[in-house]
Amino acid sequence: MLGSPDGKDDAVGENPNANRPRNASVRAMARAPLTMPHSGLTTGPAPRPSATKAPCLIGGIAYMTEPSVGAQGSPAVSPAKLRQVVLASSAGTIFEWYDFFVYGALASVIAPLFFAGLPDAQAFVFTLLTFAVGFVVRPIGALVFGKVGDSSGRKGAFLITITIMGLATFAIGLLPTADSIGIWAPILLVAMRVLQGFALGGEYGGAAIYVAEHAPHNRRGAATGWIQVSAAFGLLGALAVVLAVRASIGEDAFKAWGWRVPFLVSIGLLAISVWIRLQLEESPAFQKLKAEGQLSKRAYHESFLQWRNLKIVLLALLGIMMAQGVVWYTGFFYTQFYLERVLKIDSQTVNVLLIAVVLLSAPLYIFFARLSDRVGRKPVLLFGMLLMLVLYFPGFDYITRFGNPPLAEATRATPVAVIADPADCTFQLDLTGGAHQFSSSCDIAKGALASAGVSYATEAGAPGALARIRVGGQEIESVSAEGMAVSEVRRVRGDFEKRLRPVLDAAGYPAAAPGPMQGWSWSEIARVFREKLGVLAIMALFVVAGCALYGPQAATLVELFPTRIRYTALSLPYHVGTGWFGGLLPAIVFAINTATGQINAGLWFPVVVTAIAATVCLVFLPETKDRDIHA
């Protein structure tokens, strides 16, 4: 890969048994053409005679033996068979994404129920981190199920993952809250999130590989594009179920018990998804390897301790997956957080906008995946990265202007500053889940402004003095709650925020964005689209960038790695990129914003990550669309 841009040595060269004589039956079949029936498969376009030898039959699937460079030895699967494979793989993946995203959609509701006693801002950050915990353990699941998929088969691996995922999601709907069992409530919640992340770590790689290994080489992007669409449908399904329950029982009942319903309905979806996947057969490429006795016995060693394969893992992570993590989660998750928590736009309006862009994303995944079959994977991937690099800062600036014009105007007209002893200020990112209460006068002042969506400058104050907030020409002194109990810290913070609110109101800083939704009528939805058209347009551009990067991604990753270690080697960089860089993004950006006082300063995190990935992609990533993934 890095040293072999034509891919000649990466499809077969990693195989220590590549030069071992095949068994007698395979050698005999290779000597002469065979005409034998094979269920569900049809004869594909014939390669150039000079490029291949005669076909052989392994496991009911026709292969071309010993293809030369550039020949495609993949089986020609009938359209009906390919549709079944794509439908089954995508349906199960949609369900698993639903399970994982439904938590994100309910994070703000779950926080006070499971993290009672924590300050609001910290409880929300902890909730984001609980969401991210599922992402953090995804690479572990990738390693475990990747090994299973490479040694025992693709089908078995993602049957196990979907079962674990579904049962963990169902269990969240049954968990007692902190009022009932105290500290065990967040512990059990985190445990279920760990199981979800562990299972999802083996899901994506299995589904993408399974579809790609069935698809014709010139339609590999289009076929695997449906796996990418599953993320959109899973997110859309999670939002739709949450909104339907909310609208049917009311907000009070939803916060009391209705939040459990979206988790509990997953048990029915689990049963359907398992049944669909049980109808599948094993991947043709895996059957071929198994019949030839070429299955990897040391997948970890071959993937991560042999440089020719390790360099591909690093290239996939640094040149594709880091960017995919931050681009996709900025466009779909941090934007939602920003609209609600920073701009104070009501949740109903945010959900309507998010559903609109998710619907827009579904055909775009397929469009860019198919485009990559024509022009190549690399140009499409680079387009997505570069577009998002151009959009990060101006995009969120315009979202602020269009989403909450009074806030944008107040920020320009009336600057705010925090005057504090630097020793009194801390970086408000708590990975311990509540051990640090951020109770100093500086932290309370900054936390109150960040929660209000107010940008501020920081000025050094007198050593040991209480922090002060200056809004225009008026100042208000902060308070310290150091040494107090959790409940007292929360009360002190709340009292200070109440004293600060009239000062911000007088300076023109709004408590909420104008024009909240009044019910779910079509006229209200149309009004939201009219008034928030600018926000929707920027979100749509984010989605274009994310889809351009995500659409051809599955095919690219499959084509980068050799068959015998594909599941193991592919899954790890994918889940490190999406899990660590994407899953942790909201918490990291929020903490940077609070530390710097600028509501968009945290965007430097995804900007730097995307820029690094774009450079690696441009300089080192080879074009893969014409590679033979069955060699």
Briefly, what is this?
This protein is mainly alpha-helical. The chain is built from 26 helices and 6 strands.
Description:
Helix content is about 65%, strand content about 5%. The chain is built from 26 helices and 6 strands. It has helices at about 25-30, 80-105, 105-115, 120-135, 140-150, 155-170, 180, 185-210, 220-250, 250-255, 260-265, 265-280, 285-290, 300-305, 305-340, 345-375, 375-405, 405-415, 440-450, 485-505, 520-530, 535-550, 555-560, 565-580, 585-595, 605-620; strands at about 55-60, 60-65, 415-420, 455-460, 470, 475. It has a 4-stranded mixed sheet with strand order 4-3-5-6, covered by helices on one side. The chain has a two-stranded antiparallel ribbon with strand order 1-2. The relative contact order is 0.16.
Secondary-structure blueprint:
Layout: H1 24-31, E1 55-58, E2 61-64, H2 79-105, H3 107-114, H4 120-136, H5 138-151, H6 154-172, H7 178-181, H8 184-212, H9 220-249, H10 251-256, H11 261-264, H12 266-278, H13 284-291, H14 299-304, H15 307-342, H16 347-375, H17 377-403, H18 405-413, E3 416-420, H19 441-451, E4 457-460, E5 468-471, E6 474-477, H20 486-506, H21 522-531, H22 533-550, H23 553-560, H24 566-582, H25 585-596, H26 604-620
Parallel strand pairs: 3-4
Antiparallel strand pairs: 1-2, 3-5, 5-6
